[in-house]
Amino acid sequence: MNILAEIGAYIVTAVYREEDIPQYKGNKLIEAMPPSLSTDEWDTILSSYPNYDPLQRSWPVQQRFKMISQLQKFMVPLERHIRLAHAIDTMIKDGYIGREPRTAAHAATLQKLYEARQAGNILRPDGKDDQDFTENSSAFVGASGIGKTAILHRISRYYPVTNHVELGWIQIPWLHIEAPPDGLSVSELATTIRRRIEHLAPEATMKVKARETESERMNSAARLMYLCNVGLLIVDEVQRLKVAGKGEKKLLNLLVAASNELGIPILFVGTSKAVKLLGLDFSSARRSVGGGFPPWNVLKASHSLEFKLRGEWEHFIVAFWRLQWLQKPVELTADLSELMYTYCQGIVDIALKLFFVVQIEAIFEKTETITAQGIQQAWQRNFSLIDPMLAAYRSGDKKALEHYEDITPIAFESLFDNLRLRYQGPRDPDASACLDDSGVAVAMAKELVNQGRDTQLALQHTGHVDLKDAAGGVHEATKTAVSANATSRGSLKRKAQPASSENPNLPPDDYRMAAFLARKEGCSIFAKLESMGAVFDFDAAL
Questions:
Q1: Residue 349 pLDDT more than 60?
Q2: CB-hemisphere CA count at 13 Å for 322?
Q3: CA terminus-to-terminus distance, the chain
Q4: What b-and-e string marks burial along 464-489, b requiring 16 or more CB atoms within 10 Å of the CB?
């Protein structure tokens, strides 16, 4: 497949406009960029609402599922988003001041990179590649799940890759790289930068020697960024660099040096763990490495739905609450807003996923409405893994939060798959349990374990229900299983007889032989049943 054709709509041909701002005038790199936007214009560009119509509430179940899944793309711009967009626009354009190609300054930078390579260094001929943070480098730090990466992608899409055909230049306004979970070395950083540039602008390739040293590889990446007129380098998940070993500080200093020597602004993005790594102190007036962005904390609640008194949380929940694809929609009340906030603590990602699960479960349970009990049950059933993290937010324990910031977010797809497994059925493939579905027993056992029952006892319960009882849903089947098991145990107590120590004359593979053989071999009955293949491997099934 032709990559250029695939992303061709994203690469535009430069059209220049005259700038009014004195320091921008005559700079072709800036005059080819889209104009700076007003607050209302940014609000329109950053907004993302599902194609919602109240009539969709009467659609078939499977169609409503697809509409509810659109919540993962929901975005309502708040004041913090608009401020960030203005700051990014200024950061990119200011970074282009004095960087036009075919100027004396441009040629001097390329000459310096060449001499550094010849000397076996990365950026400077004298080898002083490690430098302290300056105004060219900034930090964007905030809580995990608050939407930092998502908003950066939305803002960045406003600035397309530009081909200055008549001048023979290529311009990449932003370059976004993300540190992997296992850290990032200098060589890996160089490779990532080169691949990202080649993806955005396939024609901007650079021949690489088969055996390059680390310094040569990074020098090539720096030269490629400069030749492609990268406007802003975004280094995301910067807190992950901490696991890269003792070299993470060296890597950070190298990135800052690249920003200083090339004139390319750099934005470090991460959770509060990045504060220590970057050596920041947000308790003072110093807000970032250079001059940049205040930290993004969770959405604050004013605990009032009155328009003039709403906080960030209230503006957010009012905007998405109307997106109900249930047959019995409910109005947002102060109590429901408070309950949602109690669970998600103002974390955007978790709030949307909880609202998603509540609606899916309401459809499966056939209640078709949102209640406080439904929200509570949805949380207990689907978000137990991250509940300790949210408890740390509720308590304000910052030290405890550090242990949970790297937890992998729960995906919408994973939540939906788990719900389908729990509720599948024959009368409605989207709402009840399937008779020939081997996953029903597993789903029933999981439900019992979630209720606090012992794993082995849960498996015993599932053995006392016919799959036809699962037609009303896994919850109904589970109740039947528990009731049947209680009756069975009572019957066994009444009819229990002393076991014969003689051979019961049964086939060797008859499970009733387990008691006889266990006594004979001096082992437990459970161990014998396990050796006969009669014990269900619950962990493997899950």
A1: yes
A2: 13
A3: 39
A4: bbebebbbbbbbbbbebbbebbeeee
Q: What is the pLDDT of residues 5-30, one digit of tens each?
A: 333 347 899 999 999 999 999 999 99
Q: List the 175-178 sheet strands across, edge first.
A: 137-141, 266-270, 233-236, 175-178
pLDDT tens digits, one per residue of 37-51: 999 999 999 999 999
- Residue 391's pLDDT is 77
Sorting pLDDT into bands at 50, 70 and 90, what band is 440? low
Q: How many residues does the chain have?
A: 542
Cα–Cα distance, 426 to 472 (Å, whole number): 9
How far apart CA 399 and CA 403 sit, in angstroms, is 7
- H helix or E strand, kind and range, residue 176: strand 175-178
The amino acid present at 59, given as its one-letter code, is W
Sheet containing 11-13: order of strands = 11-13, 161-164, 169-171
Q: Where are the beta strands (DSSP E) in 354-397?
A: none
Helices (H) and strands (E) in the chain — how many of each?
A: 24, 7
Contact call for residues 445 and 538 (beta carbons, < 8 A):
yes
Please check whether residue 264 is in contact with residue 230, taking contact to mean a CB–CB distance below 8 angstroms.
yes
pTM for the model stands at 0.70
C-alpha to C-alpha distance for 442 and 316, rounded to whole angstroms: 38
Q: Distances in Å between the alpha carbon of 311 and those of 318, 341, 373, 493?
A: 11, 12, 25, 61
Identify the residue whose tokens are 């807003």: 337
Q: Where are the beta strands (DSSP E) in 233-323?
A: 233-236, 266-270
Task: Among 125-134, 255-264, 297-306, name the most confident range.
Answer: 297-306
DSSP 182: T
User: SS3 letters for 451-486?
Assistant: CCCCHHHHHHHHCCCCHHHHHHCHHHHHHHHHHHHH
Average pLDDT of the segment spanning 296-309? 91
Q: What string of DSSP letters covers 318-366?
A: HHHHT---SSS-----HHHHHHHHHHHTT-HHHHHHHHHHHHHHHHHTT
- Residue 288 is predicted with a pLDDT of 42
Give the chain's mean pLDDT.
77
Strand bridging mode 233-236 / 169-171: unpaired
Do 96 and 265 touch, CB atoms closer than 8 A? no
How far apart CA 516 and CA 500 sit, in angstroms, is 8
Query: For a pLDDT cut of 90, what percent of the chain falls above it?
Result: 33
Task: Measure the CA–CA gap between 109 and 272, rounded to whole angstroms.
Answer: 35
CA-CA distance, 121 to 215, in Å (whole number)? 6
Confidence of residue 98 (pLDDT cuts 50, 70, 90): confident
